[in-house]
Amino acid sequence: MNRWLDRGITLLLLALLGWAGWSMLHWLLMAADWSVVTANLPLYAVGSFPADQRWRPLSWMAALITLTLLTLVGPKRGCVRRWLPLVWIAMAPLGLWLLAGGLGLLPVGTRSWGGLTLTLLLTGGSGALALPLGILLALGRRSELPVLRWSSAAYIELMRAVPLIAVLFFGQLLIPLFLPPGLEINRVLRAVVAFALFAAAYIAEDVRGGLQAIPPTQREAAAVLGLSPRQVLQLVVLPQALRVALPSLTNQAVGLLQNTSLMAILGLVELLGISRSLLANPAFIGRYLEVYLWLAAVYWLACTAMALLARHLEVQLDPARSAS
User: Residue 239: exposed, middle, or buried by beta-carbon count in 10 A (0-12, 13-18, 19+)?
Assistant: First the structure.
């Protein structure tokens, strides 16, 4: 009796899933109006960047896609593989130069930055600042100096207790009030700093968990070999701790990418900001489902690429797997 009941429930669920899948496919291919997306692809990609200069952010995104594919499916050995880490490090300053201009390029103000380009730049810039700050906070929380340990713990607990949107409001609205007269920081830089300060607290806890996973025998063996405390930390403990914390750090990076959508509330026209402005256009009123499905697909692709890169790095850092 139970076996027939299980089969009946299974068939019913399969029928419901098939009906839902067919209805969704029919809507995607036949009923949906994708003109709101196809007509505004340049806007989604680069925002209101000057039309004659759009090649700059598009070139940067093309370089990111090429570098991602080369990292995931490129040759496993050779000079190309050895240079990949340096090329990845150079991508953030390259993108900043292409977007901002200078050094031979026409300067473009941050008010013209937007779309997927701004989302990726916010994520990359915030992550580049948050990672070293989080490592320092994790080391400070495990320090033997009471003042350093307490101050690091206080900062981490404070940031973890405050909502991200409050930190972003502080960065956009209150930071200019504390600056000396004549000094101004543009909105993009304020957003990067606010994101980095918030994410660093969570990264610090992930790194601290990695540090606690390293057995004391590792430090003792390094000390026996004659390494100084700084060398023990730099060459033995910290690399292993970061490898242990890599899955958690990947979650933080993915969350950081998704949280950039909050900047639409504060006036930056990243992906969600572009969508809000398009839905306010009378020509595209009512196309909410198409717009948000498109946004979901773009975020899914970006987050999946980040997860695959982190997984690839995790395999490369595993001695057993890299040897095989």
Answer: middle
